[in-house]
Design a protein that fits this description.
The chain has about 425 residues and is α+β, with helices and mostly antiparallel strands. It is about 35% helix and about 25% strand. The chain has two domains: about 10-215 and about 340-420, Aminopeptidase; about 220-335, Alpha-Beta Plaits (2-Layer Sandwich), CATH 3.30.70. The chain has helices at about 10-25, 35-50, 95-110, 140-145, 165-170, 175-180, 200-205, 245-265, 305-325, 345-355, 370-375, 400-420; strands at about 25, 30, 55-60, 65-70, 75-85, 120-125, 190-195, 210-215, 220-230, 230-235, 270-275, 275-280, 290, 290-300, 330, 335, 340, 360-365, 380-385, 390, 400.
């Protein structure tokens, strides 16, 4: 029997409808980071919080906080959060589902007269998506006073104006962020929970509505890898005289694919992608041996040791393949983001609630990055729930079923109320 205040799902549906109406452009959603779309979403959440009689606040970076006060506001709070920005021509649920779920939980508790033992906060996070300024987790890092000041001077990909200029346009003073002003302190957060649509096909394939996330994969990415050979005539050059950059790069990628299969057979978590692979359009041609390629090698895992092993393997193979094809590889220094292991006790609690509520759930790792990883890596007990979602994400065709969302939000509501009883 249910022993918690049910989340307000009618409110959730209205919020999704309003977000769609206010931020749809053409086929997709555009909630641009520090732009009109993201600001419209934050305005909607602030206004909704005030209409519910909840406390509403913002930090120096413009993150939104909606709070149901607890009996002891001096105690560390329980926080629910996710981001409100989107990629260009994205879907309506990526990020926003977590904020809407949090508001639905607070609304249900308020309507039922529930007074939690400590504050329960919903955080609408700014600037999670890296598309607009080529930097992720801006809002979360800024909330903890950990954003590198130079990020404020990065120019947005479309407007060419800096992040600081965009903030000022929205009435947000970037000065405190530049100085490292912190609104959140890790020891003031008892738990952080993020509900998010799954951005892959695992739950759909398994026929299960809810995922219990075990960890968030980190990333080791050779962003600016290069192979340099020599251009030549495709008909006149025998194989042994070639320095073919395309053939060499293909061989390198194939070898790394074989290593991926080996690592998987050993039971380790790994995904490997070559997201970009191109020749120089000013130099290549249909009758030329290509003298240069540029490409990306992207390794992701929940284990640092696995990513480090693949980094070393990529360097070893680049040396070996370079000799084989008489070319030179320069992978350059990789970009790195740390993996995050989520709290097993919280995950067990969420799983127990799912079982009690008759909701099918399964454990899985998150391949995509999330703000929750920042909280987890600061030592804050953190958990994530995934909601089954068709057609992937970062596209207009996201297809989350509201029944699945309601199931996950019920689990979230029960957990929050149990830990704040």
């Amino acid at each position: 029997m249910r022993d918690f205040a049910a989340p307000d799902m009618m409110l959730a549906e209205r919020l999704f409808g309003a977000l769609d109406t206010q931020t749809r452009q053409g086929r997709g959603i555009v909630r641009d980071t520090y732009g009109r779309g993201e600001e419209a979403a934050h305005t909607l959440i602030r206004e909704t919080g005030r209409s519910l009689g909840l406390d509403v606040d913002a930090d120096a970076a413009g993150n939104t906080y909606v709070t149901l006060p607890g009996a002891d506001s001096a105690a560390p709070c329980v926080m629910i959060g996710s981001h409100l920005d989107s990629v260009l021509q994205g879907g309506n649920y990526d990020g926003a589902a977590g904020v809407v779920a949090g508001i639905a939980v607070l609304a249900g508790m308020r309507q039922a007269g529930v007074v939690p033992s400590t504050d329960v906060k919903v955080m609408g996070i700014r600037a999670e998506e890296g598309q607009w300024f080529d930097t992720s987790y801006v809002g979360t890092f800024a909330a903890f006073g950990q954003l590198e000041p130079a990020v404020l001077d990065v120019r947005r990909i479309d407007t060419k104006r800096t992040m600081a200029e965009h903030m000022i346009e929205l009435g947000i003073d970037p000065g405190p962020v530049r100085r490292g002003a912190a609104y959140l302190q890790p020891d003031r957060i008892r738990q952080f929970l993020e509900l998010h649509i799954e951005q892959g096909p695992v739950l759909i394939g398994a026929g299960i509505p809810v995922g219990l996330v075990t960890g968030i994969r980190g990333c080791m990415r050779f962003r600016n890898a290069q192979c340099v050979g020599e251009y030549g005539h495709s008909g006149a050059l025998p194989r042994l005289h070639r320095h073919d950059a395309v053939a060499a790069t293909v061989d390198l990628i194939h070898a790394l694919q074989q290593d991926w299969l080996r690592v998987e057979k050993e039971g380790q978590d790994l995904v490997f992608t070559t997201g970009e692979f191109y020749t120089d359009a000013a130099m290549h041609g249909p009758s030329k041996v290509s003298g240069e390629t540029r490409f990306v090698l992207d390794f992701r895992s929940i284990a640092d040791s696995t990513m480090e092993a693949m980094r070393l393997r990529a360097l070893e193979l680049a040396e070996r393949v370079g000799r084989k094809f008489a070319v030179r590889f320069d992978l350059h220094e990789p970009l790195y983001s740390a993996p995050a292991l989520l709290d097993p006790t919280m995950r067990a609690s969420l799983g127990d609630i799912a079982s009690e509520e008759g909701i099918a759930a399964m454990e899985l790792a998150s391949g995509a990055g999330h703000d929750a990883s920042v909280f987890a890596n600061l030592g804050i007990p953190t958990a994530m729930l995934f909601v089954r979602n068709a057609n992937g994400s970062h596209n207009p065709d996201e297809a989350m079923d509201m029944a699945d969302f309601a199931a996950a939000t019920r689990i979230l509501a029960a957990h929050v109320q149990r830990v704040t009883a």
